[in-house]
Amino acid sequence: MTPFPCPYVFPDSRRCPGHLVKIEAFNADLSWVFGESGGWTFNHSQPRSRYQLFCSERGDHAGDSLPEQMKCYLSGIYHVQGREALNGD
Length: 89
Prior knowledge:
Layout: E1 20-25, E2 30-34, E3 40-44, E4 51-55, E5 71-72, H1 74-81, H2 83-87
Antiparallel strand pairs: 1-4, 2-3, 4-5
């Protein structure tokens, strides 16, 4: 699989040379339900808030001047590499 390029752009218009190594979801609903069959089922929802992206070169770019570029919503995450690539299609 081709790595997803880091979306961070420095103030001087240089793109970060890194690639994404981790994506954290915030405010997702997680639950485990005990079913009639005696087993547990895990359920989850899409995050209600945002995703935090992490780069191979600089983590979440927190020390840089524009770290908000590494925060995105579900609609914005598709723009990083395309919906098909993120879904494995």
